[in-house]
Amino acid sequence: MATATTQTPRREAFGSRNVFILSAIGSAVGLGNIWRFPYVAYEGGGGAFLIPYLCALLTAGIPLLFFDYAIGHRFRGSAPLAFRRMHRAAEPLGWWQVLICVVIAVYYAVIIAWAAMYTWFSAQLTWGPGNEDSFFSGDFLQSADVAKVGVSTEFVPQVGIPLTVVWLIVIVIMALGVKRGIGTANMILMPLLTIMFAILVVQSLFLPGAMDGLNAFFTPNWEALADPGVWASAYGHIFFSLSVAFGIMVTYSSYLKRKTDLTGSGLVVAFANSGFEILAGIGVFAALGFMAQAQGTEVAGVATSGIGLAFVAFPTIVSQATGGSIIGVLFFGALVFAGITSLISILEVIVAALQDKLGWARVRTTLTVSIPLAIVSMALFSTTTALSVLDTADAFVNAFGIMAVTLVAVIIVAWLLHKLPVLVEHLNRRSSFRVGLLWKLLVGVLAPVVLGYLFVSELISKISEPYSGYPAWFLAIFGWGMVVALVVLALLLSALPWSGRSHAKDDPEYDEFLSEEEYEPDAETSAIPIASASEKGARA
């Protein structure tokens, strides 16, 4: 029986549904929306790509977003606790997601630090005309020779110092909690991000050659729709774009009040995210059209994505355009804001999981999580070998971390635990947009088929030849070794006992949910004991 001194405090909550929506959009709208989607759409058939993209959004992205919302809100916990409350054997799924977030957080922070420095560089055109590529890899990152791939201890101060600042800012936000920290940060940063990017897009549209870029982006290549790879690319992008299966949306939805419109909120988040991606495509390709005209080449000759787009192509545009410094400050400032809102959501998955498991206070848990991650981040990515380590970790954690855990999760929840009817009932009990058989088919049948295809394709690709030509030992550590370690550590963390102070043992909020839902997990499968009426009375 719990006493007044051992009682676990109520779970933190967002101040309102609007704050949750902004926070969820902030998580979904990240670096990939700005530097990945435009090129994926361009390569996938331009305007024609919007067809598979919309199909992927409606048949996979939104259904899986509802899936995460239902699990987090119904079982009232971080990813490990929510899956454990569903069934004891499902707890490793939650820890797998937590560990994926650990890997992503470590390298995501350094990209924000790069963007912060480039915001400053843009104001002064530090790289000089024609030196954008050599400046990024040489002067700025001081990257080691590709032939000498490894882990260096040579510190690069212009990366290490801003990286330290990024971690300090994020730690303060996380320590303030869900309402005062995460909620407030998103309430400030998301409107700023939207305004800055809207101004950037308008300015880009007035650049010479902008229409050439837009024509390249929107002109449909209908033949691309016959290519299965284009459809696979659309589904793959949607899975990553909406932050599903990271544990983020499970955690965020657990902070919602009981009578929140889950599916209505999900639709707002999904379409806002897609709207931002299309806006990013317009801005990026308008700028690339200008770059192509300035260099006397086709848009296809300058179109790129990822780090190359952000830190090589855009600095070139900044150097050549009238008012280029303003474009650079807006673009890289937007990357910083988008990165921070995504990073705090990634860290929240880890903090919430340990808080639930150990029953620690918010500040203690935040420092326990963030300081070691910051140290590892600075040790790996403030050195001359940062780029190759980041490239490998990102490629493998996306292909064999996020994609794999999503595939396993939908199979276990839908086919082994048969929990989709419970989730449907929970969604429909408190949502404006009702789901039913179609949603169950999309989550339980279509999602596993698509994810299975994507996973096998990536597996064949990575096995057939060494990724990016990196040495086998390097890939064994930062690629395949990391993938295996995530699964092993997830199983080990699941085997550790839950603290008597944790939410798992004494959570008044969850007791209220049980009472309201009139639902009790099966005694043989549930690892979390349901309090008796006398215990509930004693807590009150």
Question: Tags for this entry?
Answer:
540 residues, 22 helices, globular, disordered N terminus, disordered C terminus
- Stretches where pLDDT is under 50 for at least 5 consecutive residues are 1-6, 518-540
Q: Assess the beta-strand content as a share of residues.
A: under 5%
Residues in helix, %: over 70%
CA radius of gyration? 23 Å
Inertia-based shape? globular
Could you tell me the number of beta strands? 0
Number of helices: 22
Average pLDDT for all residues: 89
Question: Helices and strands: which structural class?
Answer: mainly alpha
Distance between the termini: 12 Å
Largest sheet: none
Question: What order do the SSEs take from the amino end to the carboxyl end, as H and E?
Answer: HHHHHHHHHHHHHHHHHHHHHH
Q: Could you explain how this protein is built, in words?
A:
It is a single chain. The protein has helices spanning 17-28, 31-35, 37-43, 50-75, 79-86, 91-124, 132-140, 157-175, 177-205, 210-218, 228-241, 248-253, 262-295, 306-320, 324-358, 362-381, 386-416, 420-429, 437-464, 472-495, 508-517, 533-539. The chain has 540 residues and is mostly helical. The model is unreliable at 1-6 and 518-540 (pLDDT under 50).
